[in-house]
Hints:
4 helices, Small_drug/metabolite_transptr, membrane, amino-acid betaine transmembrane transporter activity, about 80% helix
Amino acid sequence: MSPTTIAYGYLAIAIICEVIGTTFLMKSEQFTRLVPTLMMGALYAVSFYLMAQTLKTIPLGIAYALWGGLGIVLTSLAGVVLFKQNLDTAAVVGIAMIVGGVVVMNLLSNSVVH
């Protein structure tokens, strides 16, 4: 397997851990519940470790754009599904614009490692 493929795999797992960690942040009730707080910390630690491994191969700007863009989309979906939060039209349009930006970067930028 190529180093780039491995790096994108690390990044995908890092994003998933960050999103799940953020879900536990919500469940921690401002750090007043021990288990969700510990889970959040552990998942964030794994996420940052994997992000650091990703940066050995993928440029920072590209990795962070993917991290941020996909993190926003997945965290928003978690809010809707798990916490019954609503997204209004402006929120959906904004999220779509973020996704569009990440797609443009990955398809058209010469900075992206392929």
